[in-house]
Amino acid sequence: MSVSSKVLPMRTEEDLMIVRQTVKAWMIEQEFSLLEQTKLVTAISEIGRNALVYGGGGSALLEQLLENCRVGIRVTIEDQGPGIADIEQALQDAYSTGNGLGFGLSGAKRLVMDFDICSKPGQGTRIKMTVWN
Ligand SMILES: Nc1ncnc2c1ncn2[C@@H]1O[C@H](COP(=O)(O)OP(=O)(O)OP(=O)(O)O)[C@@H](O)[C@H]1O
Ligand SMILES: [Mg+2]
Fold first, then answer.
1. Could you report the average pLDDT of every consecutive run of 10 residues in the chain (133 residues)?
2. Contact at 8 Å (CB) between 129 and 43?
3. To test ligand 1's pocket by mutation, which of 16, 44, 54 has the most ligand atoms within 8 angstroms of CB?
4. Which residues line ligand 1 (CB under 6 A)?
5. Domain span including residue 7
6. Which candidate, 78, 77, 76, 72, places its Cα nearest to that of 2?
7. Whole-model pTM?
């Protein structure tokens, strides 16, 4: 169950910084460890930057979750860019169509508990990342 949510723009580096700061503040409130905070914020940086660089910008939905007796955070970053034709390939380490190292997607996936990607050519990209405390 989502107890509180917020939609923020993801169009500039500054927007990305605000998303990172908001999530970090929520995680501190929810008493996530510093390690867990850093992991999610790092994943957000990678996915957010991809949305800016490849997707031409988009938005971020931030949700505070409550399930039975545990709390969580879900971050959904989406763009209306070209989408990803081969998701398996894009998720491979060191695969990049740009000037990057190609560790953004694969790294982000490893950093969060639940990582879900929905992307189709011409339909943009939406990535959901969820962590529980
Ligand atoms: N939002 C997106 N829209 C379209 N294509 C994307 C998107 N995100 C990732 N991709 C594609 O997936 C590839 C792999 O992404 P990944 O973040 O792993 O590497 P990178 O951005 O190229 O390099 P790095 O993140 O290491 O600097 C990208 O090169 C790009 O082709
Ligand atoms: Mg990247």
1. 94 98 98 98 98 98 96 98 97 95 97 97 97 98
2. yes
3. 54
4. 46, 50-51, 54-55, 79, 81-84, 90, 95-98, 100-106, 125
5. 2-132
6. 72
7. 0.97
